[in-house]
Amino acid sequence: MLSSANFTGTRPASGDRVTLCIRPEHFCASDNQSAIRLGEAEVTGSAFFGTHFRCHLLPVAARDVSLVAHMPQSARVAAGDRIPLAVDPTAVTVLPVA
Length: 98
Hints:
This protein is mainly beta.
């Protein structure tokens, strides 16, 4: 459940369309107890940037969406891997769809 602080305006009604804005560095391990689990994603590419791995992801449940996530240095990710995807709920911004 997201708090009121996540919404740029009033809370949408059930069934309203919204856009979730998540910065690449706010994705986290799915074993984080407070994380919102988003399902699995396929790694389509990754590169080590010193402080993190920049990963291009294709969510299994939304094949028409492409995501970029910054995974920690300790992550073991390679193209073709499926990884659990989660986000810290305090880092999500919700925008209404006009």
